[in-house]
Amino acid sequence: MPITKLTTLGDFPTFLAVKSLQSTFWTEFSQMIRILVVDDQRVIRQGLKALLDPEPDFEVVGDADNGQTAIEQVAALGPDVVLLDIRMPVMDGVAATRIIHQDSNTKVLVLSGSDDEESLAQALQAGAMGYLLKDTPAEEIANAIRSVHRGYTQMGPGLFEKLVSRVPVTTPAPIPEPTPETPPWQPKVSMPPELDLLGLLKGFDPLALAEAVRTAAAQHSLSSFFTQVRDSLQQEPTNVAALYLAGALGHRKQRKKLEALEALKQGFQQGLRQGIPFKDLLLFYREGMLLNPEEVFTWLSAKSDWQSDDQAWDFLLPEAAQAFGTGSQHYRSLLVLRQVKAAAKLSEDCLLLAPQLEALEQGFKQLTAVSLPTKGKGLA
Q1: Long-range contacts: 127-134, Cβ < 8 Å, 24+?
Q2: Neighbouring residues of 265: CB distance < 8 A, sequence distance ≥ 6
Q3: How far apart are CA 198 and CA 120, in angstroms?
Q4: What is the per-residue pLDDT across 198-252, written as a single tens digit (0 to 9) for each?
Q5: Which one of 6, 112, 275, 329 has the fewest beta carbons within 10 angstroms of its own beta carbon?
Q6: Residues 70/38, Cβ–Cβ less than 8 Å
Q7: Is 330:323 a contact under the CB 8 Å cutoff?
């Protein structure tokens, strides 16, 4: 039984016990995150407050219905994170973000119904740490707030690709007209077999992709290869292999750590959606650990199904110990969650065995009634 879902009335004691353990866990390992909710629609503000209040590490300290009021509330309340809409009266979210970013240490996470490139680019340029759409699941909003509070960039699915499409493409020389068999982004130049981009993007081969990055670095062709990958993403923004190459090549040559990390994160998430084996997606994890171990480790620990996978536990605990040490919050929190998981599983097993045990008890009673002699009579 997933520890966050109540499926039957019989599960209720287990649910309460697990939630109690989770609350103790957050109290011990997390600090309270003070949040200001900003949206011009009252029903949305109320809904967000109802969504965030139950989180044990969240405190909604106030709300505002426009950008000007939000600035005043930030000055008065000093929240850690502002969850803010873009389109509002009096002052829009972009202008408010710019002032909040300049005048305080409060971090801004945009939650908007608009996914147009202009709003996205303006918000990030103004200083927003992340951009989510209003149809984002509740759990992802909560996780994004925690990540932004720790200083990590967060973007909703598909938004990174929109940013990529805005990057101007420059080529050192004209590329010959493509043939029907050759995509426009595949240059007709002689390349080593390891750097055959068309072949690399047809599937997801972790060994071939890692070898392509090593070859490009050894042959000092990171820039040209990165340009090809970037062009390919404009044609296929959800290609998992291209997203890996964009991240791996980007931080090696372009030194753009945040952009590279975002490409790796988007590739990891796309890979999960497309059903790529988890062991193959560890390629993203290993590359990301070179950039930001704290954030990248959350990619694994935030997976919705890992808590029911014993092999995942066998990987995560040693990985946390090696990366952060056995005294770290990562390792200790995983240890607590594994104990929660074990307690929930034991309770569930007991509930499943109850009918069989009752039937067995009834059988013993019937057997005893037949086998024992009646009072006053001896055995035959």
Answers
A1: 127/97, 127/98, 127/100, 127/101, 127/102, 128/84, 128/97, 128/101, 129/153, 129/154, 130/154, 130/155, 131/155, 131/156, 131/159, 132/156, 133/159, 134/44
A2: 284, 288, 296, 299
A3: 31
A4: 888 888 888 888 888 888 888 777 888 888 888 888 888 889 998 998 888 888 7
A5: 275
A6: yes
A7: yes
